[in-house]
Specification:
Layout: H1 8-12, H2 22-40, H3 44-58
Pfam family, one: BC10
Protein name: Bladder cancer-associated protein
Subcellular location: Membrane
């Protein structure tokens, strides 16, 4: 599990509170992961453990997913023009 020591901090990077910065955050995380997998070439077991951890965190419903925010209920609806 030596391969995972550089991947575990990725799960702990906080999401930005400003929704406008969410795309930049997601792009950074995706590019970091692609670069990590291309450069370090972690073993299959470590890769699967990391992907399962990301899947479980994203589907836990706690709003901790590193790839998107769970703020669908907080979006303001446009007022109808009368």
């Amino acid at each position: 599990m030596y391969c995972l020591q550089c991947l575990i901090p990725v799960l702990l990077i906080p999401k930005p509170t400003n929704p406008a910065l969410m795309q930049t955050h997601v792009m950074f995380i995706v590019l970091y992961l692609i670069g990590f997998f291309l450069e370090r070439k972690p073993c299959t077991i470590c890769s699967l453990v990391f992907l399962v951890a990301v899947f479980l965190i994203c589907n836990s419903g706690l709003g901790n997913c590193i790839f998107w925010s769970n703020c669908e209920g907080h979006q303001e609806e446009a007022a109808p023009i009368a």
